[in-house]
Design brief:
Blueprint: H1 7-11, H2 18-29, E1 35-36, H3 48-58, H4 73-87, E2 97-100, H5 103-114, E3 120-125, H6 130-137, E4 141-146, H7 162-166, E5 168-174, H8 186-199, E6 202-206, H9 228-231, E7 232-237, E8 250-254, H10 256-269, H11 275-287, H12 293-312, E9 316-317, E10 325-329, H13 336-347, E11 349-350, E12 352-353, E13 364-368, H14 373-384
Parallel strand pairs: 1-11, 3-4, 3-5, 5-6, 6-7
Antiparallel strand pairs: 2-8, 7-8, 9-10, 10-13, 12-13
Helix pairs in contact: 2-13, 3-11, 4-11, 5-6, 5-10, 12-14
The structure holds pyridoxal-5'-phosphate.
Pyridoxal-5'-phosphate binds near residues 104, 128, 245 and 250.
């Protein structure tokens, strides 16, 4: 029997890292020692206290049954309290907070709640690929907002044609930003509120990296902007904040109707987040001051090593104030894919080609500092030996 895929699956753009994955495998088979700066997955362990709380909670039979899709009220209360301490924003844990099986899950599901076939969704380019894919899976049409260096990698909202804005249902934004590492000030969020109110667009702010920020900088919540809660939802994650990517725990907060819409999708497609993990999440949010100082100092040292090395070989890169990514302009005469291949073949260095994050990522590569200092220094030495 011929197995035919649904059209929506065929519409998902090809996986642009596939070629680099193939090359990586080829180099590995040849015995090359690869330094992987391609993927942003924290290499450091989850703090022991959080692990201990999970161990204890896992033994409690109360947690062995189906959890509620919206999350334990104790977890949602811990989220609301953390939010107030961290951003001075008040949230009703009963109506304005929803637990997620990682923030990716919420981002992937939200268009299903609000986008009708043919509606536009405003998607940053370059951007985290899930915004585009979740739009397509919901039958929506992504309209790409280029993030350019000359505009500090913020979208220029005044460039969006009026007829597109009028047919748009959702605007995705993400600061601190993956892949560009750019940050947004409150004035930008104010501008977003004005724009979204004018065209009645739901704002989905992805704040997965809000607690990975350097040199004393503290990123803002979108909900700090006046009026944001009328039209916005914000996605957070414990993944990067507490080195918990494998645990799958995140949350969405904001406008109660938007939260409820997302909750309704979740109610029908998943069965909530393992309660023992929620207990561990409560421990994390209640016990630690974020950002975690040791973690941030580690990333700062790594960032400085790689920044210095990149500058020494003449590559242009802005010093990140946040995230664990460096967004590097590639030398003239190369495409992102060609430069990524050169790094891999001549240096055994894996980087992510910028065009994998959208057309406007062409001309860049992204490197993640989620490896130790010794390996980063080795990467720098190898960079110095590459001809470009
Ligand atoms: C911008 C951005 N948002 C969301 C996520 C998803 O994180 P998680 O599902 O682990 O919460 C990631 C993960 O890499 C990301 O880079």
């Amino acid at each position: 029997m011929q197995i035919e895929k649904a059209k929506r699956i065929d519409q998902i753009p090809p996986y642009l890292f596939a070629e680099i994955d193939r090359k990586k495998e080829e180099m590995r088979r040849k015995g090359m020692d690869l330094i992987d700066l391609g993927i942003g997955d924290p290499d450091l362990p989850t703090p022991g206290l959080i692990v201990e709380r999970l161990k204890k909670a896992a033994e409690n039979p109360r947690h062995h049954r189906y959890p509620s899709y919206e999350g334990m009220i104790e977890f949602r209360t811990a989220v609301a309290q953390w939010y107030e301490r961290r951003f001075h924003v008040k949230l009703d844990p009963g109506a304005e907070v929803l637990s997620l099986i990682g923030s990716k899950e919420g981002i992937a599901h939200i268009p299903l709640a609000f986008v009708n076939p043919g509606d536009y969704v405003l998607v940053p380019s370059p951007g985290y690929p899930v915004y585009r894919v979740s739009t397509i899976l919901a039958g929506g049409v992504p309209f790409f907002l280029p993030l350019r260096r000359e505009n500090r990698f913020l979208p220029n909202l005044s460039e969006i044609p009026k007829e597109v804005a009028e047919k748009s249902k959702i605007l995705f934004i993400n600061y601190p930003n993956n892949p560009t590492s750019a940050v947004a000030e409150k004035s930008f969020f104010d501008e977003v509120v004005t724009f979204a109110r004018r065209y009645r667009i739901i704002v989905c702010h992805d704040a997965a990296y809000s607690e990975v920020a350097f040199d004393g900088y503290r990123p803002h919540s979108f909900l700090e902007a006046e009026g944001a809660k009328e039209l916005g939802i914000e996605f957070h994650s414990l993944s990067k904040t507490f080195n918990m990517t494998g645990w799958r725990i995140g949350f969405a907060v904001g406008n109660s109707e938007i939260v409820a819409g997302l909750g309704r999708v979740k109610n029908n497609v998943d069965s909530g987040l393992f309660q023992a993990i929620q207990e561990a999440g409560i421990e994390a949010l209640n016990h630690f001051d974020t950002p975690l100082p040791d973690l941030i100092q580690t990333y700062e040292r790594r960032r400085d090593i790689l920044m210095k090395g990149l500058q020494e070989v003449g590559l242009e890169v802005d010093k990140p104030k946040a995230t664990f990514y460096l967004w590097i302009q590639i030398p003239r005469g190369f495409t992102s894919a060609q430069f990524t291949t050169l790094l891999l073949e001549q240096g055994g260095i894996v980087a992510a080609p910028g065009n994998g994050f959208g057309e406007s990522g062409e001309g860049y590569v992204r490197m993640a500092i989620t490896i130790n200092e010794t390996r980063l220094k080795e990467a720098v030495e190898r960079l110095k030996r590459i001809n470009f």
